[in-house]
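Sharing a chain and its predicted structure for anyone who wants a worked example. Both blocks are below, sequence first, tokens second.
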Amino acid sequence: MYTNWQEQGLDSFTAIRWYRVGAVVEYLHELRRYIICTPGKLSSTYMPMLQKEYSQVYDGEQDALSEGHAMAQQNNERTQGLPAKESQRFPAHEVYICEAIGDWGLMLDRLALMSSIMVNTNRLERRYPHVDTAGGLEEQGMVMIHKLMRMIVERVDFVNRQQFEARYDLNWQQEQEHEQTSQQRSGITESNKANHVKREETPRRDTTGSGSSTPHYRSMSSDRSEGTVDLTSNQPN
């Protein structure tokens, strides 16, 4: 687990969108193919989407959306939250982009906006800059897809495990090791407390080397023998 996850406040990042780079590439390929190969009016039912909330079904198409199409839309959802938790390490062999790192969020939002206008051409009446027709919008969409592909090839603002943990100064420790460390620290603390109490309660030990914890007292018999005088030597014959 990440031992300092709470200290870094990363739970507040869970709403930020992260995308696997492979999923973004797949989305760009599908969108490009759909724009190029669709002969008629583009439909939100089949429009590839990176984020679920951008693929809402409009009232006029509600009846036409079958259960199979709804399932396809759900499968097209490629967004996810932070790919790590306090007890779950950042994936080792995956590379991600984050909507809040670099220009990825803005670029992907612009492409999503273009896709929405392609489906709802009446929005052209809002007069977006440099776009006057549906065909011009599709051309701008292709340019945006190409820019994003170049950013991916150049690995712009990619985030892997090493970069993620370095960016937020995270320390990972296996759960078993973490438990052992916690137990060791707890044991040391308890031992220190016990030693402190023992020093306060234990009386002064005997320094004679006997090993007895009995306090040292002077021997009364020894005191008498040291002060005794031999009176028999001075008695007359």
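Comments welcome. The chain has eight helices and two strands.
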